[in-house]
Amino acid sequence: MNRDGGSGGAIHKARGACRTAAVDTPRLFVTAGVVVALVLLAGCGTSKTLASSTTVPPLSATRTTQPPEGGSRTTVTPSTGPITSPTTIPLKISGFLAQSVSFVTANDGFVMGMVACPNGACLALRHTVDRGTSWTSLAPPPIPLGQANNGGVDEMHFADAMDGWAFGDTSWATHDGAQHWHQVNLGGIVVAMASGAGEAYALVGPCASTSPCSGSGHLFRSPVGQDSWTQVPGVSGRFDQGQYSLVVEGRTVFLLAAFPSPQLLTSSDGIHFSSLAVPCSPASAVEPQAFLPGSLAASDPSDLAVACLGGAGAGSQMKQVLVSHDGGHTFQALPDPQMGGDGAKLAMPAPTTVLLATASAGTTVFRIASPDSAWTTPLFFADEGAGLSDLEFVDPANGALIHGPATAARSILGLPNPPPGLGELYLTDSGGSTWFPVNNLS
Fold first, then answer.
1. What predicted TM-score, i.e. pTM, was given to this entire model?
2. Which tens digit of pLDDT belongs to each residue from 334-365?
3. In CATH, what number is assigned to the domain containing residue 310?
4. In the chain, N or C: fewer CB atoms in 10 Å?
């Protein structure tokens, strides 16, 4: 699957043992005067007309199952009132606030989050082998949930049931299914991770968050079951700024970045990278501001999608979504997504299916699948822009996301009238056309 990064950095994450990606999401949303962490992909503005999508054969029907015990099909979470100024009331956590999710198969997955503890709030880790019907508690890394410069972690990626990583201000690895964790130092902040074909990849910013610098970040790789990280030659960028995406499909690796200049890189072996043309629209007389890369997703080594972001304002942003069926050598434009919402986090569960998440006053997941001629809206939350994290699929049918991740939730739960339903895990078994919450993680 994928993980991409935005103005604060983001990641496209795990698609499973042989499909994974890294983040492409900004880490901050500013809405209604409230700063909310973990924006998925950047995107806002007015609409721009694009060419219509090419005709592709429809995806075969997918299996639909009932939600696990403790879940329901209610997917719209209304706000209970306006967000007002913060108070000095201590944050009270009830239950489990999810932050990051990583499924390695349709049934086997991990969720990292925050729970109440004697010290106030502590990092927690849950594991399921029956797609959320039941959960067991595992030991998380011995650090707090990440926030600026606290040494904590706010993202997680598992390559398989044994090998996983938690990362943020610091990075930690496990090779025994979270029985034990140890710290990993790659010389900077890991902003995205992905894995495939027995190799793990880490996109590393130029320096620690406490040390401003102007250097370039790099890509590292290691065998999944080892801590033998080596720098991949020829890959660099300001991965601590702007949008970026790291996506792995089998042995094929894609890297999209916006700064210091737009770049789209591909590799068939994870070592030797070549440049592809970035498909975002350049500046023109009609549109004086160029579109910048925002997010990348892929369903296999040949089929990928790129979201491009234009001018933003008043809770909206111009967005383009383009798809390629030849590994990124040529692209065709899909119909314009709606302007509403900042950010544009992509997922591509199948060659003919694309999902896009945005957030401003509310949080929305859009979807388009052949033979659709327009985007549909399978999920909307009236949540004051709490956002989503880890929109990912492990196969064409089965996916996951977290609504109002814990780093965002703790920023607003102390307010007089916070929206409900924050820190909830959602699952789909229909390629993203329907979703249901899982609320039995406590």
1. 0.80
2. 998 888 878 789 999 999 999 999 988 889 99
3. 2.130.10.10
4. C
